[in-house]
Design brief:
Rossmann fold, Helicase, Ruva Protein, domain 3, Zinc Finger, Delta Prime, domain 3, five-stranded parallel β-sheet, two-stranded parallel sheet
């Protein structure tokens, strides 16, 4: 059974199920959900807990099976927690998970909690994961996207009795807060808690939040990719500055941008050959937020624009490796910025509604 994270609290009030699977790439949200399940279990007599972390190809799965089938002399009920950081249990692990899932319904003395990272579509369609969902409760934790982050911050502040001013001032405060913690939900949570320590309940002004909140943004190359494809020019420039300040390797940033361009070109070519867009996206393993961005941009991007972007990516590859090229900045970060903004501008121009005779092209 699939359950939305927002429904977990009400679900736990109605009673516990013997098996829960939490998966996603937001550690804070998974941690909070797991804490809530553990607390509900403790209140119902699950007094013992064992934790098993699957690491390496030689993990002993028999220990997990033994833990689920035995009880301590001192406990009537127990929690068996299984963490699989890679999301890949392997053949033996998959068989054990299916066995555990099938046996969960008849075991009212053991609560099993399985923690997984974000899973791709192929993994979610596998037999072991299907068994976990069929015999237990599954919760998927999606990232809090940038557009939704201000509201998430406001809700978390409200839980501790704080709020921002009404109107434009409050929105400016929330946007500032979101800019500072973008990409790092755990840091956002910590900064919100810090506000509770510094100020009493009630309304907080912009200056109070500005003084308290540190620049803790974790700019990562995957979020940069999303910002570029969304055509968010100002955000792209800010994220590139953040990546540079944090010492991220230029070649990694280039790889991410170039791989997006190559994927766009491969899918465009597949569409030209008669493949439906959804099929071409699946073949290139594009899903989630990027899938929606590709769907929006691809039908409006010309092959000529993508060819120009591919050529630019090839040139920047040489620059970040030390080559100097005419008509391009010698500095790797400046070249990366030009490449990112060319792709970003192509997405903006090509995705915008066009009028007859507009004739604009990106690249």
């Amino acid at each position: 059974m699939q359950l939305a994270p927002a429904q977990l609290s009400a679900h736990l009030q109605r009673g516990l199920k013997p098996l829960y699977t939490l998966h996603g790439d937001e550690p804070l949200l998974i941690q909070e959900a797991a804490d809530a399940i553990r607390a509900a279990a403790r209140s119902q007599g699950y007094t013992e807990r064992t934790v098993h972390t699957v690491a390496g190809a030689h993990f002993d799965w028999s220990e997990v099976l033994a833990a689920g089938g035995s009880l301590s002399l001192f406990a009537d009920k127990q929690i068996v927690e299984l963490r699989i950081p890679s999301g890949k249990p392997g053949k033996e692990g998959g068989a054990v998970l299916q066995q555990m899932a099938q046996g969960a319904a008849g075991n009212d003395s053991t609560l099993t909690l399985v923690l997984l990272p974000r899973l791709d579509r192929q993994t979610r369609s596998g037999a072991w994961f299907a068994a976990l969902e069929a015999h237990g409760v599954s919760l998927a934790f999606e990232p809090i996207e940038r557009a939704a982050l201000p509201q998430w911050i406001a809700q978390r502040m409200a839980q501790q009795g704080q709020r921002v001013a009404a109107g434009d001032e409050g929105q400016r405060t929330l946007q500032f807060f979101a800019d500072r913690v973008e990409g790092n939900l755990l840091a956002a949570h910590q900064e919100i808690q810090k506000l509770a320590l510094l100020y009493p309940a009630g309304e907080l002004g912009f200056e109070q939040v500005e003084t308290a909140v540190l620049d803790v943004a974790r700019y990562d190359v995957f979020k940069l990719s999303e910002a570029v494809l969304a055509g968010q020019v100002v955000r792209v420039q800010r994220m590139l500055d953040g990546l540079k300040a944090e010492g991220v390797a230029e070649v990694l940033v280039h790889y991410t941008l170039a791989e997006d361009i190559r994927a766009l070109k491969r899918i465009k070519d597949a569409m030209a050959a008669g493949r439906p867009l959804p099929m071409a996206l699946r073949e290139q393993r594009i899903w989630g937020v990027r899938e929606r961005l590709f769907e929006r941009v691809l039908p409006r991007l010309s092959s000529a624009t993508l060819d120009q972007l591919l050529q630019s990516a090839h040139l920047v590859d040489g620059i970040v490796k030390g080559l100097k090229l005419p008509d391009w900045p010698a500095d790797g970060w400046q070249a990366l910025q030009r490449l990112a903004l060319r792709l970003c501008q192509a997405c903006v121009v090509q995705a915008a509604p066009t009028r007859a005779g507009a004739g604009q092209r990106g690249g």
